[in-house]
Amino acid sequence: MATQTTASCTGSTLLQPLSEMINLPLDQVNFVACQLFALLMAFWFRIYLHPSKTSPFIRHVVATLLGFYVGLFCFGWYSLHFLLQSGLSYSVMVFSGLEHMHKYCFIVTLGYLILCQITRVYVFDYGMYSADFTGPMMVITQKITSLVFEIHDGLTKREGQLTPSQKYLAISRMPSLLEYLSYNCNFMGILAGPTCSYNDYMAFIEGTCYQPRHLENANGKENGRHQQIEPSPKNAVISKLCTCAISLAIYLSLCKVLPVEDTIDDDFVSSTPFHLQVVYLYLAMLALRPKYYFVWTLADAINNAAGFGFSGYNKDGSPRWDMISNVRIPGIELATSYKMFIDNWNIQTALWLKRVCYERCPINPTAATFLLSAMWHGVYPGYYLTFFTGISMTMAARAIRHNIRPLFLVSDSYKRIYDVITWAGTQVAISYTVVPFVLLAVGPSLKFYRSWYFCLHLVCVLVVLALPVKSRCQQAKEEQDSLQDNQKEHKRTDNNCNQKDKAT
C-alpha cells in the first residue's frame, strides 16, 4: 500500500523504509516527521533565540529558513510555489496604490491558489487526498489576504470607520520583505497553520506579547492583577500532545472500521433500516474528526512550544495558551446548534472568513462567505455541494433558534430537553452536510443524498419559508439598542451610588 502511494509524494524519500514498515503513505509520514521536527525546533527557538538574547532580525531569519527547509523536505521543489505566491502578492502590495491594494492582492493570491489546486487535481492526481503542497498555500493565502486588509485599514481609514477588532488588527506601516516572508513561511505554521494576525506574530518575534497593554487589546480584559512574568507553555504543550496521541489512536482504530463510503453502498442502503443509517453516518463522521484534531492540536502545540499563543490568564491565575487555537473539541462534540459547531471547528479559518468577507461584503454576506470558503478549500465538486448545503442549513438553524428556542426557556427542565434535541439535530445535520466533503465527487455525493431523499434539504427549505428570520440589520439594531440600554442602566446605577455616597 505504501509503495503504491509513494509515487504521489513530491518530498524527500529519506523516510521511505519507515513508510513501508508502518504501511502509511510517505507524504503523510514526511508531514508528521516534519511537524515533530518543528516541535523540537520550537523549544530550541524559545530557549536559545529568546527575544532577550537576540534581535528580531535573527529570529525572523531563523524562523524563515527553518520554514523553507521543512517545506522542501515535505514537498520538494513544489515548495517554490510558496515563494512564488508570496512574491507575486508582495509585488502587488508594493506597486499598486493603497486604495485598491487589498482587492488586487486578494484576487492574485486566491487566483494563484485556485490555479495550483486545478492543476494538482485535474492534471496530476484527482484522487490524492492527503498531504499536498496546496495545503500550506491555503494557510499562506489566509495570511496574505488578512495582511493586506489590515494594511488597508491602518493606512487608508480613520479610527471611526473601524470596528474595535479592526482597530487592533490595523497595520500602520508596510512590512519589510523579511518580516513578510517570516510571517507567511515560518517553521511553526508553514505546514498546518494556524493563521494568526500580523500584529500578534510581530509581538511574539519582538518579545512584547506578554505586556499588559497587548493582552488587554487582544482579549478585552485587563491582566495587570497578575504578576507580568513570562509564563511557561510546558503544561499547555504536554496537554495538547496528549490530546494528539489520543486523537491519532482513535482515528487509526476507527477510520477503517467505519468508512463513510459504506453510506452509499447498495447492499448497506437496502438492508439497513433508515434510523440505523442515521446512527452509522454520525459514527462514521465521528471517527473522521480525530484526524483533524490531531493535525490542528499538534500545530497549536508547536506554536506554544516556541512561546507563541499566550492569551492571558484564567481567573485562578493560570496562563491561557489559546490565542491561535484552531479547535475546541468539547464545543464540537457537545454543540447544540449549527453555529456553535462552526464556531469551534477550524476557528482561525472562521475568523479569517469573518474578517475578510462577512464583515465587508455588502450583499448577502452569509452566501458570499460560504462561497469563498468553498473556493478556498479546493476545486473538488464535493466542497461546493457541502457549502451550498451549509447555506440552507445555517438559515434554517437561525430561524429555528429565533422562533423555537424562546419557547423552551421557561424552565431549566425544558431547556435541557431542548439542548438534547438540538444536540442530536446538530450532529445529524453536520454529518449530512459534510458527506460530499469526504466523498469529493458529484456522483457519490448525489447518490448519498438520493438515498436520504434529500430530506434535510427539503426540511431546511420548509423551515426557512415557514419561519421568519431576522435580517442582519435587525440583529445589529437590536444589539445596539441592548447596548444602549445597558449603558443607561450603568449610568443610573452610578448616579444612585454617587447620591448614596453624598448622603453618607
UniProtKB/TrEMBL annotation:
Residues 478-504 are annotated as: Disordered. One of its GO terms (cellular component) is endoplasmic reticulum membrane. Pfam families: MBOAT. It is found in: Endoplasmic reticulum membrane. The keyword Ligase does not apply. Keywords: Acyltransferase, Endoplasmic reticulum, Membrane, Transferase, Transmembrane, Transmembrane helix. Its main location: endoplasmic reticulum. PANTHER family: LYSOPHOSPHOLIPID ACYLTRANSFERASE 2, PORCUPINE. This is Membrane-bound O-acyltransferase domain-containing protein 2.
